[in-house]
Amino acid sequence: MKLTGKLFIGASEVAATEGTMKALNPATNQVIEPEFALGGLAEVDRAALLADDAFDSYSHTSLTERAQFLERIADNLDAVRKELAARASLETGLAEAPLEAEAAKAATQFRQFADVVRKGRFLQLSIDPALPERQPRPRMDHRLQKMAIGPVTIFGASNFPISYSVAGGDTASALASGATVILKAHNAHPGASEIQARAIRNAVRESGLHEGVFSMLRGEGNAIGEALVDHPLVKAVTFTGSEVGGMALYRRAQRRPDPIPVFTEMTSVNPTFILPAAQAARGAAIGDGFAERMLVNVGQACLKPAILISIEGPGFDALRDAMAERVAGAPARTMLTPGIHSAYERGVTRLEGEGACRVAEGGTSQAAFDGQSVLLEVDGQAFLSNAALAEEVFGPAALLVKARNEEELLAIARSLRGQLSATMHLEPGDTALARRLLPLLERRTGRVVVNAFSHPQEVSFASIHGGPFPATSDSRFTSVGMTSIERFLRPISYQGFPDNLLPEALRDANPLEVPRLVDGQ
Ligand code: NAP
Q: Domain span at residue 19?
């Protein structure tokens, strides 16, 4: 496929209005052809008007029609899987094979959401029939369903250039809800973004839908993202990235005359607690498994286990030695962008400046944006007295925290901010401590894992990729999994309606055969 470098506004491919950019191959530090268009406020306005214009027809598509559209996107993604992975690899320095798997996962997510749409349970239908004889006041017939919130802005993430980017779970769940989408592409992988956008845009056309269902924009600096958050026709935003960026956009949306929800997924150190019996029984295996996970994607993953908390005692040395060995054997590898690479190096320097000691380091950098793996260690008291040590360093670094005893381990758990996940390694002899630790973790995380590592994330009905701030800006929702659709839905109640004016799903005959709660039963 020849890349045009254009912006995709509905069915139109739009040339640059605010200059151009080229992608960078972070492995070679060379720019890659072609030029990509940058847009500005006029393009935001055009895309938002189209998205708004498309909303009424798209949000009223039948469940079957919408499911077929999502399946078309999946088919189109499958058809370009190899070239998408190849281009994404050039633009990110990540290996092609895992990127092909990521592209397959992205297509699967669209099929999973097609199934969610067909089953219709996301509509959460409730019917409270009229009670004309009720005293002291009759009840009117009223019926509730969920509907899409309106046109939404989605910020593509940098670190998973497909499954969290243009054709990622945010886009799949938003389109499944009936929302129309304006995608703000991440400038770190413009070619991969275009290939994905084309797959979606073509599916819009092949499905005979309004062209405004999907647009993809790109811009320089913050202006385009800010304009997408500010635009009065945009009704919700999703974002994956830094805490600084996420909170700037969140606060901006709250300052609008009509504040809108911004679902940000930002930062998590995914603490891993090693309980004493587990450490004594299999300290080396846990240390090795932890270090293996922390290095996946060059540590550039929201679920990277970044902090391991352990108690000095039997098995501790074996655990630390295994972590150190794995880290020392890791070659330095290309990081996603120059900015992420320099933020990583600053982050490691910061941790050392705060008193963490270097236990092991991997191979040294061979190229400009290679990230060297690092294992640092600090004792529990130092960790507790310095909140900066609990901050995420995005990249292949981890911090081992050595607690003196169980009380100190529990105090460390109490000190942590909100997380996407937390893990306990335990054996039957650890149950009493686990019972004390668990409520502390439940309050601070969206997911608690036992005897495994938090990565990778399942995309399923019971999966949660969310958690208390600053893991996300709204702990009631997930950004991955089938319930991520709920971010884009709002309830609407129809009162006293004639049957033929009701949405199909709420009509007396239940033509869609979707389960409904009737009078609470
Ligand atoms: P980022 O700087 O937060 O940027 C993410 C996206 O939001 C980009 O498209 C960016 O546009 C836009 N943006 C950021 N701040 C904005 C603002 N104030 N106004 C308007 N738009 C804004 O994230 P990144 O570039 O992907 O990586 C930087 C750091 O983010 C990493 O070093 C890491 O610490 C963190 N990160 C975390 C995760 C995670 O899963 N937790 C994932 C990725 C990154 P521009 O690129 O045009 O600025």
A: 7-121+146-266+474-493
Ligand 1 atom closest to the CA of 184, numbered from 1 = 9
Residues in CB range of 396: below 8 A, 6 or more apart: 294, 295, 298, 299, 330, 333, 344, 362, 371, 372, 373, 374
Does the pLDDT value for residue 455 go beyond 70?
no
Cα of 239 to ligand 1 centre, how many Å? 8
Inside any domain, residue 456: no
Residue 222 belongs to a domain: yes
CB-ligand 1 contact for 157 (6 Å cutoff): yes
Alpha carbons 151 and 231: distance in angstroms, whole number:
10
For the segment 172-196, the average pLDDT, to the nearest whole number, is: 98
Same domain, 195 and 155: yes
The single residue listed with the structure tokens 């060995």 is: 325
Q: Are both 295 and 351 inside the same structural domain? A: yes
Determine whether the shortest distance from the Cβ of 14 to ligand 1 is under 6 A: no
pLDDT at 454 over 70: no
- The rounded Å distance from CA 45 to ligand 1 centre is 23
84 and 25 belong to one structural domain:
yes
Q: Is the CB of 449 under 6 A from ligand 1?
A: no
CB 355 within 8 A of CB 383: no
CATH code: domain of residue 399: 3.40.309.10
Same domain, 186 and 63: yes
Write the residue with the smallest CA distance to atom 13 of ligand 1: 245
Instruction: Write out pLDDT tens, residues 366-419.
Output: 999 999 999 999 999 999 999 999 999 999 999 999 999 999 999 999 999 999
Confidence of residue 453 (pLDDT cuts 50, 70, 90): confident
Is 467 contained in some domain?
Answer: no
User: Could you identify the atom of ligand 1 that is nearest to the CA of residue 187?
Assistant: 46
Instruction: Yes or no: say if 295 and 396 are a contact pair by the CB < 8 Å rule.
Output: yes
Q: How many domains does the chain have?
A: 2
- Expressed in angstroms and rounded, the spacing between residue 242 Cα and the centre of ligand 1 is 5
Cα of 287 from ligand 1 centre, angstroms: 31
**Would residue 130 count as lying in a domain?**
no
467 — alpha (psi -120 to 50), left (phi > 0) or beta?
left
377 is annotated as an active-site residue: no
Both 238 and 322 in one domain: the answer is no
